[in-house]
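Class, look over these structure tokens:
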Amino acid sequence: MKLKDLKKEVELLLKNNPRCRDDDIFLLYKYWTEVQGVKIFIPFEKFKELVPFESISRCRRKIQNDEHKFPPSLEVWKARKQQEEKYYEYFGKQS
């Protein structure tokens, strides 16, 4: 996945579907189903009740990065650092 492509795909969903602008869960649902072609056999009404991916991911980052518990393997850590650098390169480092 290239960040430039991801940004374009998300922008297109936001442009063409106003609901995506107001609802991150719906945006995620549409991205997975329309852009990635994932077949989700969960009605959207049930899907939106699931804990958002971002919340789970944020929790994992807090536990691993802030509390220094349950670190990832060295291979995953290196890959994450590399991806982080790509984000900073593309989007700029936020203070």
Observations:
- The CA atoms of residues 65 and 71 lie 8 Å apart.
- The mean pLDDT is 84.
